[in-house]
Amino acid sequence: MNIEYLGNKDLLNEQKTAFLAASAIPLDMVLKCYDWAAGKHDGCVVSGFSSKLEKDVLHFLLKAECPIILVLARKMYKVLPEELKKPLEQGRLLIISTSNSPRQSKQTAFERNKYVCELADSIFFVGVTPQSSLQPLYDKYIEKNIRIN
Question: What is the model's pTM?
Answer without folding.
Answer: 0.93
